[in-house]
Fold G-protein coupled receptors family 1 profile domain-containing protein.
Amino acid sequence: MSSPPATPRSTLGSTPSTQGRRRGQSSSPPRAPHRSPSSLGPEKREYLNTTAEAKRKTHGPQKSLDELRQQMIDLHYANNRNYFDNITYEIYNISQQDETSARYTKREIGININSQFINGRFYRLENPLKHFSILEPANGCNNGIVLTRQSAEQQKCIIATNAGFFNTKTGDCLGNVISNGKIVQKPGIHNANFGITKDNKFVIGYINISEIDNFDQLIGGVIWLVRNGLSYVNISETLEDMTTQETGSTFVTVRAGRVALGHDAAGRIMMLVMDGASAYSKGPNLHEMAQLMIELGAINAINLDGGGSSTAIENGSLVNYVSDSCPGSDIESSISRCERRVTTITCIYDVTEQNDRETNEKTLTVVFGTITSSFNQPKFCATPAWNPFGITFANRTTVGGYPFVLFINMNNTIYTVNREMKQILMWINNSINPNQITPDNFTDSYSIFVTNNGDIYYDNGNENGRVDKWISNTNTLVNVMNVDSSCDGLFIDINNNLYCSMSDDNIILKTWSNDSEMISTTAAGTGIPGSASDELDGPLGIFVDLNFDLYVADHRNDRIQLFKHGELNGTTIFGEGSSNNSISLNYPSGIVLDADKNLFIVDQFNHRIIRSGFNDIRCIIGCSGEGSQFYQLSNPRTLSFDSYGNIFITDTGNSRIQKFDFLSNSCDNSSMVESAYSSVLTENHSTYSRTGCDLSNYYYEVIQMNVNESLYYTLHSNSSIDTYGYVYTDKFYPPDPSINLILEDSDRFSKGQFGIRTFLQSTTVNILILTTVYPNVTGTFSIFASGLNDVTFERLINPDKCVIGNPCKNQAKGIGITLDDILRFEINRNVTLKNQPLLVKISVALTIIMFLLGLINSILSFLTFQNENLRKFGCGIYLLASSITSLLTISMFTINFWFILITQMNSSFHRGGCKSIESLLKLFLYFDTWLNACVAIERAINVYQGINFNKEKSKRLARWIIFILPFCITATIIHEPLHSDVFEYPVKENYYDTKIIEVHRWCVINYSRVVQDYNTAVLFIHLIGPFIANLFSALFIIFGTARQRSLAQTNQNYITHVRAQFREHKQLVISPAILLILSMPRLIISLLPGCVKVSDKPWLYLFAYFISFTPSILVFIVFVVPSELYLKTLKESLRNWQRRICH
């Protein structure tokens, strides 16, 4: 789009407003450009712009054509007569395009006259040969008046406007009328005519009655607006008869609705209908109407009947704002408008069926040089969808950190700003590497807007207090607006008004982009932060539609505001305070409209994109919460469409620009396949909170959806209960339903049944969560999926993770079951031990019994192995140390139990105890187990070495092992206290209560996958390692001793000696096997999934836990009781202690 000419607003009769801020105002007014066809000489241009001498104040009676011709000759002067081949009319070749379907462009018009906004409709017919007619009313030209709409429907007109003048009292047509070769009327009033001859020529001007037979279409008007590309109003006003007009001599200057008919240089018909109301002096006068037609490209044009008759019909519907009020209604009413009955109409029609026509219905706006928008507003089908998995178009390396700016023009040139490098980046023609533009004094820009001619308007307000324009043709800068702070949003409407959204000042200013005086007026906001209808709080993104209505992303008010043209009081159409609150907004930062005025909202702090249609409000991109995955966004700032409907987003928090492809097959409903799934929600189903922080419980079912091809599918439910549906990728995590969430839908538009249109991938896991609208509801349901391929459904039973806590605060629980897990839901809080459940009481009794048995075991073992004779070998030293560690183990076991019991019974808790007790318990337990293994290993070495066994060396080695072993064990389990922590959450009566009833505190251990694998390996090493050492040592002793004896005692074979040794040393095999069996429950419960429901079988898990610690109290039984030497030594030690006590 080329830059529009600098037509001043004074040409339209408007006066620039002085409201708002004003910087650098020039003292000289702007001058209007002089536009004329190049074929006209300076004398003719001078003549046609002369008004004072030519204009007469009154109009005489009707003239004959000869009189009119002579008067025109007199006015033109004799020496200028050759300037027109025919002084009374112009002839122009018609476009020869000859398609069977009408091809036309329809556009909306908007102009500002005397601070009043005037709408209009403009039509340009590309192929008028077979698709344009002047039509009389159905019952004839002089037999009554009818509605334009009725005539259009009867004649199957695609586009129709009212046409000729008529007598308002009798309804008779005025002026010439020829319709499709039929001469309807030729009264000979010599005012301006528009006609098409039978040899396909346009004729515009004053027609002789004798020449009428040569016309195929002809309509008479009043005032020749445009002649040869220049305004002819001043001349024709002096020539034409306006005595039939109710406004008389003011007909040209009165402001009212207007209708014009003409043609352009390409031989195409032009029709223009402008709204207005003479009662309120609203609408264009004929000078302005002529200027507007010239700006639209007219070479010749006439004025048709206007005022209350001004009517535009499209496909049978009234599309303009007529000025007549309906009978019995107030003229001020904006909704009680009624079409006036008229006579003739202009008609665009098809030769073939109406649905087969070829049209260009982009509904663009044209006003004084601005022809098309510079950005893309795609027109989507009723069911549009985008691939939720984005592609990174540009990353941080290219766009720098935290990009804000994005603009895509209609040529798909992509613009953004690298704020770190202070550059404007521009990708042209799908280029991989962007062009770089570095304007002078370019600092940090928060917004840009690009016009069709490539001029870049950019925010330069943060440091320099202005908005600048970089002119692409000359690579020069122009200051176009002065501001007090950054423009967080820039927009240029179709009337070349420049808007600046200033979040720091809570206001939106606008100015005409070509105004050298740079006078700014307030478009919205008061400059004071607030949430009233005329206030804004941190406005960011803005959008102005073709009606000059302003849409604002009112950032800190969490809403979208709509300010109708010329109004400073806005309406909340979405977000906080609106009637449409099905989806809440959190700091919206951007707003874009498509061709059908569907809203696309950048919901910044919800990290998603919302599409709001007429009856469809949903998240379309980034619906799974904040993140950096390809389907997630982080603090997105702006979005823009390319011409294909793809969405580009500045993913600011991830420092990238993401592209989400429009899926054209989402509109294909031609060959749909429907799949079904039915089930029942029961009380056996799991429950969760839909909001993630609500104490209410909702039953849900997890369903995996499998597809063979990645496509869009429509899901909906048909159930006896009101349902919600959520789509996830990979996994569903009940404590935080926002994780992996792709799309959600409710019952808003489905009468209690959800409906989702979502993209299902064949290469990933697609999860559907079916739950209910209300808590604690069960019942049957059915789900239907329709798409181009089948969908198979599979119910998933087991959740992937288990948690503790409540929905507002929870903690994923790692693998393994601890005593805390077993007793957590059995111990009653704030209740004495006497009133605790039986399981708790028995646990107390067992703990005391085990402690006493462990104490006795350790004392007897210590008394046995403190004897110096037994400690001449390393084995005795190991067993002495084992007697001590077994006591420490059972003591820590007891401490751990009472720590859990006390902390669960009341709210007191010590983080140090949580981190240390369990780890110390394992340290002593593993130490004791490995000491037992060391005993077995030394015995095997003794058998192997025989008489060469070195007792002193054995003792030294035992002391070193006892010293080093605790450090080695600690090194293997040091990860436990590092990953242990206290998890606590408050318990309230309900979510909205501020009063906390109690606080739950638990010890939790949460490992990563790698650490979990390491922990599992450590468990096996400390359990299986000692068992293997005991077993192989025992077998070595048995078989080694048997071999030695078989060599010495040859009277018995080797097998006999093995049997004898096994009978003698069977306790060496049986004891480690028993210890392993007793320790196996500890291994099993340490490897159980954290989500095992312990409360279902608490007795089983409790006894398994207690049994796993019995090896620590069996040292005496395993090592002392089977040995005569050890028993003899114990008895001697007891007698020695008895003598000491007695003496």
